[in-house]
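REVIEWER CHECKLIST
Item 1: Sequence provided? yes
Item 2: Single chain? yes
Item 3: Sequence as submitted:
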Amino acid sequence: MSRGMNIQVTAGKVKKVETRQVNDKKKSCVTIEGCGFRVVAWDVKVQEGDLICVVSRVQTRSYDKDGEKNYVTEVIARQIVNLNEKAGNLTIAIGNLGRKPEMRYTGTGKAVANFSVAAETYGSDGPEWFSVTAWEKLAEICDQHLNKGDRVAIAGRLNLDSRDKRQDLHLFERVQP
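Item 4: Structure as written out by the authors:
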């Protein structure tokens, strides 16, 4: 069975930010110049004029208004890298799992899943292999839903280990309420 991929990467200059308080978090709707949509993000620190890179997913939800069912499609940010503040070590790879995630817990109880991904590289003879580490909620999701051979899109911070020439990709996710 083939599963669809829902990943969107957008980069650009912030045109407008609308923020409101929802319980104990700040919900922001960020408009990027040249894009025909707003990105929904939680507890994000961006302002007009910032250059950002957004890794997100698209979702459609329904709501009732005046007794009528309505639908809205939203772009939900998983991560926003503010390129004005940092270099922006953001790596995105699309490939196949080399092995099922191995799940464990740290001494403090945080979930950690490790697995490998083979991504084809244009012009090379074989795939480029990444060792991937996912943390907390994302680690649990990977452990439950991913199997060897599954096609995945991953986004994270790339660490190069000079000792063994390994490329480690550390995944992160903002858990949305």
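Item 5: Key structural point noted by reviewer: Residues 91-171 form a domain with the OB fold (Dihydrolipoamide Acetyltransferase, E2P) fold (CATH 2.40.50.140).
Item 6: Recommendation: ____
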